[in-house]
Input
Amino acid sequence: MYGENNTWVVIIYEDEETADKALHTLKSVEKQGMIDFEDTVIVRKDPDGKVHVENAIDRSTKVGAAGGSLIGLLVGFMFGGPIGMMLLGGLGGALVGKLTKSGVDKKFIQDVSDHLQPGNSALFMVIRAARVDVVLAGLREYPGTIFQTSLPPDLEDQLQKELDTHKNEPAE
Output
C-alpha cells in the first residue's frame, strides 16, 4: 500500500540503458538509508517504438503481486500493454476516471507520454522518503528529463483496493 508522503517521479533518458544505470546507483543510495522506494519500474521504447516494461523491485517482499501495483497501472494507462488492456476492459472507466479526475495530473501523463521517444528509457519511481541532496548527487552523472507528481493518500488507497479486488481477473 502506498503511503502518505509518497512522491511519484519519472526520469526520461535519451538512450535505452541509462535508466538501469541510474536505478543501480539509487539502489546503492537506498542501502545507505538515504532513499526508500515504494515501487520502481523501468520502461524502454525500442527504436521501433515498442514499449517494454520491467518491474525493478522484488514484488514478493515489497509490494505483493505485480497486478496490484499502482505504478504499473499508471505505466499501463500511459503506454498500453497488458495492464493497459485490463484498464480498457473490466476496470477501465472507474480507475482511469479516478486517475485523471483527482489524482494524477493530466499534464503529467501527457508530458511523460510525449517525451518517451523511440530509443529512450524511463525510470518510474514511487518514493516514500529521501534525502534529496544525496539522491541528486547520485543522479548527477545521469542527466535526464524529470517529471514529478503526487497522489492524495485517499485516492492511492482507493485505487489500490480496486486493483487488489480485480488482480486475479483476466484482461478482456
